[in-house]
Amino acid sequence: MSGPAPSPLPSAKPKASSGRNWLKGGAQYGFALMVGIVSLLLTLGVWQWLVLGQSRSTETEFTLEAEQRAEGIKRQFFSETSVMRALLGYYRASQNVAPEEFRAFAKVYLTGLSSLDSVQWAPHVPGGERRDWEESSAAFRFTQADAHGMAVQAERRGSYFPVVYAESAMDGTPEMLGFDWGSDPFARAAMMAARDSGEINAAAHIRLPPMADDTPRIALFAPVYDGGEQVAVDQRRKHLKGFVVAVLRIGDVVQGAIDLMPRKGVDLYLLDSSAPAAQRVLLSIMAPGSKAKRKPGAGPAMDSGLFHSSSLVIGNSVFTIYTAATDAYGDRRAATTPAIALAGGLAVTLILFIYLVSLANQRARTEQVVAQRTAELRGVNMRLEERTIQLEESETELRAAKNRAEEATRAKSQFLANMSHEIRTPMNGVIGASELLSDTRLNASQREYLAMITQSADALLHLINDILDFSKIEAGRLELEHVAFSLRDELADTLQAFAGRATEKGIELACHVALDVPDALEGDPHRLRQVVINLVGNALRFTERGEVVMDVAVERMEDQQVRLRFAVSDTGPGIAADKRKLIFEAFSQADTSFTRRFGGTGLGLTIASQLVQLMGGRLELDSSVGRGSVFHFTIAFALAQGEPAHPPAEQPSLHGLPVLIVDDNATNRRILDEIIRGWGMKPLAVESGPKALAALRNAAGIGRPLRLVLLDMMMPDMDGFAVAKEIARSGGDERPAVIMLSSAQKDEMARRNWATGIAAFLLKPVRQSELLEAIFAVLKVTVREETAPPEPAPHDRPSLHVLVAEDNAVNQRLALRLLEKRGHRVKIVGDGAQAVEALAQDSFDVVLMDVQMPEMDGFQATAAIRERERGTGQHMPIVAMTAHAMRGDRERCLAAGMDDYISKPLRAEDFYEVVEGRFASAAKPHSEEGSGP
């Protein structure tokens, strides 16, 4: 084999150049020759090293094989002793083992273990009890084996160990029965050692009466004691009950372990280390063609160059597994590796020499290719530089586009803020004027028109809030509060706002909060209320009959945190599977046709879902068409400071009080039953008026009259008023107190209470605190818990002198009417400059400052007032009164020096709470002559 011929030299070059090329090529070939010689020398050295290492490798390989073979034999021995451990556990678990039980138990192992010769039970029989044993059965005699292996009568000894139960894989079990293991010196020594140690022990060289062949066997003895395990040696000797015995064929055990291992050229011996030299060999397995055939007892050949020994320990008995290599072992491992290495090295040397010659010829061509590739790389580098310039230009354009997008976002936020202010300002006048008008004397038509105005204004305000909330969430500018609140009161207040809608549609609205749910929590009650309003409002809108139920339960309770599961279920039409994802998308509804029956912006569920995500949960839907829907989510809340995880709900003063619950709705009955039981009372729930009257008569007839009736107003056939009327007719001192529960308005119910004798009316879903207070009130029971001091009456509040800075005429009149209605004196100014001037001329208790006003706005006016106060040390309370409701507006007002914040449209209760709640206690007395409005 030869490399490619060198390229011919160009004829145009001079002879001197040709000579130089020849010398250069000769140097290249000389290098190839030198490398070939070095490679040949290395090959010879490696071959000699491999020859020397072959013997060491053979010895190591033999040792590993011998250790693996010895470990396999040990595992086989311990595997075969599984019957001993099983029978030992059987005897420890049962005081008496019948022959049938022993036979059935042993047969399983005799069929599964090929080397198991027999399994026996040999009890410990003291010498004085031998006669009793033999007389108990005519066929049972104590025997021993003579010199020929025949069974003869046993000699007299101090104790015996006769075979009572025996099962064998072969015939011969009857001859074993009665055989005294104590007559065999090897077996007796092993049994005494097992008795004292409490462990399984072994004995070789044993002979049973039916053993007619020379197959070497080994007996395993496991001691059994009375009363379970014994610790001390003297206790073991005293409580010995007998031995479980297993006889193994040694050849089968060893052969089963080494059948899968190649043993050509290897002799194997099993030695008894404790036996005399003549009896030391228990088993010998010679390699095929071995020159030194050995039988058990003949002694192994110790002249082998390679041998290995390993100990097999069974209790106090030690056996040796001896392995010796024969000449055939070395022949099988002839020194082929060095020869292969030599041939391979020569081949590599030749190939390397040829390769170097070829490499010298291709070097020139390689240099040409490198030059060509270098030129190509220069072109690629130029194109990369051009691409880099283009990327930099693209990055500049992207940065400009990002800036434009951010500017658009800021413009959008500013637009939303301005729109919020501009829409809320007239809405403030509409809602405020409606509230003031509702306090005047109106006829039925006028009150109906006023209700239409109020509902339309509330709907428009709700729409505005939905759009603003969605924009805040979309821009990532919505923040959560972390304040303390009462969960049950918050949910009851929220759901009671829907009571009128539920009554109009004939739908039952219920709220169930499990008893183990903590009430005092810390979180954002406003956002929780917003989620509940959206879910319950949707359920009521789409449900035509049946019920809408709010359910709250504990999902997980930790040290200072609880994760609650909220679920709103309805009996509406349900939602198809292909529409479930759509309803959570913005401005989408399950029904998008122009003639859809239900309105709405399609933002409610989107806002609810994103609010739940902000609070660490996920809003999910389970629904089936025609069966209703269940919206559920989980939110974690912190426990309020000092609030136990499970506050006691039982009221001692009501313990054992019998209460009748009357409601046609099963959900309401279940909720009221759970609440009443939680307070320690004994409820009885019925679903109709006739059953309620029957229950009252039955209770009175047995002398256990019911003291309280919780009565639903809206029931078919016989409503709550009819039931209450029948109860009132019964008369007597034992007549129960009646509390009416209904989704109708209280004033509508109160118009009929004169004819029914109803003690109290509560709006459904009922607040637990209101229900408990009503029960205490109608039963005239004193509450043991501390109660808060009563709120001062309106005439006890001090009159405030209030300065209102507002540029809108409608809002000026609204603020004036709201404040004068509560007995406060008011001065109205149109901008910030007039407010600063009014404060310089007169004294006021509080200033209501609009933020957006002409000439001087609220922020500028506040800054001027605070600057003037620095020299006097005084502080005038200033409350921002603005239609700005975006995130950060409250913080901006407080940072500008204002003391509080009221968002428009004004709600009377919120307005009074801020103005009177914070500043009434610090009000100064003013005379009517001191200053005018």
Automatic annotation (TrEMBL):
InterPro entries: CHASE_dom, CHASE_sf, CheY-like_superfamily, HATPase_C_sf, HATPase_dom, His_kinase_dom, HisK_dim/P_dom, HisK_dim/P_sf. It comes from the Bacteria. It is found in: Cell membrane. Signal peptide: none annotated. Residues 418-639 form the Histidine kinase domain. Residues 658-779, 801-919 form the Response regulatory domain. Keywords: ATP-binding, Cell membrane, Coiled coil, Kinase, Membrane, Nucleotide-binding, Phosphoprotein, Transferase, Transmembrane, Transmembrane helix, Two-component regulatory system. The modification 4-aspartylphosphate is found at residues 712, 850. PROSITE patterns: CHASE, HIS_KIN, RESPONSE_REGULATORY. The keyword Kinase applies. The chain crosses the membrane at residues 29-52, 339-360. It is an enzyme of class 2 (transferase). Residues 93-284 form the CHASE domain. Pfam families: CHASE, HATPase_c, HisKA, Response_reg. Residues 384-418 form a coiled coil. GO terms for molecular function: ATP binding; phosphorelay sensor kinase activity. Its EC number is 2.7.13.3. One of its GO terms (cellular component) is plasma membrane. PANTHER family: HYBRID SIGNAL TRANSDUCTION HISTIDINE KINASE J (PTHR45339). This is histidine kinase. The lineage of its organism: Bacteria, Pseudomonadati, Pseudomonadota, Alphaproteobacteria, Sphingomonadales.
